[in-house]
Amino acid sequence: MHRLSIENIISNIENEIPFEAVSNDYSLTLKIEHYAPYICGAVHDGHQFRKSLWGNCTHTDYERWYEEDPCTKEMVRSHPIVIAGCDSRFEYDLNRPPETAIYEDAWGKRLWKNPLSKNEMEQSLSKHANFYKIVHALLRKIEHKYGKALVFDMHSYNWKRWERSVPVWNLGTANIDNGRFGELAMAWSQKLGGMQLPNNIESTSKINDTFQGNGYFLKYITKNFANTLVLATEISKVYCDELSGIIYPEVVRSVEEQLKEIIPLQVAAFERTRL
C-alpha cells in the first residue's frame, strides 16, 4: 500500500490506474484492483483519534469503539474497489454533512470538555472534505465508464440497546429512488436474509426497520450522481460482544465469504436493470 496525496489519488482515478493507497494524512484508505461497476464503502470503520484531542474528550476509548462500525471494511475487503475511513466518527463523522460532522454531544453525553479551537476543527473538516473529493472523482469515473454505479454502504449497529427484536440486517431505503430501485433493494435484503451464519445466528433482514438510510454518504452520492444506487446496509453487531469489545472472527469471516458470493449477484442484477 502506498501513501499518496489527495491530488495523486484523484489523478490515479482520473487516469484509471489501479492502486492501493492510504492518504498522506492517514485519514482514509482506497483500494482499486480494477475499475469495476461497483464500490464498497465503510465510512465508520475507523478508530483513530488525533492525539491533540485526547485530553479534551469526555468519552473513553471503549465508548468511542462502541459507536463505531468495527470490521465493516474487513467484511468487504476482497472486492475490487473499497474506500474506508481511518479516523473515528468522534473526530468527524463522514456520514454527516460538514456543518454537523463534528459532534458537540454524542449519544447523550457532551463530547468536549472545552470547545474545540478553530484550528482543530479545520484539521478535521479538511479530512472530511478530502474524502468527498475522492468519492466524487471515483463515482464520476465509474458512471462515465459504465453509465451507472452501485455502492454498498456498509455499517453496523448495536442491537442490545434496542428493547425489541431487531434484524441482523437492515437496509435503509428512505432516500433512494424507490420507483427505479425498489425491486433491487428488496432483492438485496432477501440475499442478506439468506445468509447462513455461525454460532446459531439467524440472518434476518428487514428494510427501514432500525434505520432508514439517512446518512450523508448516501445522500451526497444520490444527489450528485443520478445513475448511482447506494445500498445503505447495516449489520447488527452479532459479530462481536458490544459490551466487552471482543470480536468474533469466525462470524466476521463468514460474512466476508458470503458477501463474496452475493455482492456479485446483486451487481449482475443491477447491470441488467434499465435506468
Briefly, what is this?
The chain is of the alpha/beta class and 275 residues long. It contains eight helices and 13 strands.
Give me the secondary-structure topology:
Elements (H helix, E strand, L loop, with lengths): L1 E3 L1 H9 L4 E5 L4 E5 L5 E5 L8 H4 L6 H7 L4 H5 L4 E5 L19 E2 L2 E2 L7 H29 L2 E9 L11 E4 L5 H16 L11 E3 L8 H9 L3 E9 L3 E2 L4 E2 L1 H24 L3
Parallel strand pairs: 1-2, 4-5, 4-8, 8-11, 9-10
Antiparallel strand pairs: 2-3, 3-5, 6-7, 9-11, 12-13
Helix pairs in contact: 1-5, 6-8
- In N-to-C order, the SSE pattern is EHEEEHHHEEEHEEHEHEEEH
Separate helix tally: 8
> What share of residues is helical?
25-40%
Give the number of DSSP strands: 13
Tell me which CATH architecture applies here.
3-Layer(aba) Sandwich
Distance between the first and last residues' Cα: 36 Å
Mean model confidence by pLDDT: 96
> Given this structure, which CATH class is correct?
Alpha Beta
In total, the number of domains comes to: 1
- List the uncertain runs: none
What is the 3D form?
globular
* Rg over alpha carbons: 18 Å
CATH topology: Aminopeptidase
Beta-strand residue percentage: 15-25%
Largest sheet: 9 strands, mixed
Fourth-level CATH superfamily: Zn-dependent exopeptidases
Structural class: alpha/beta
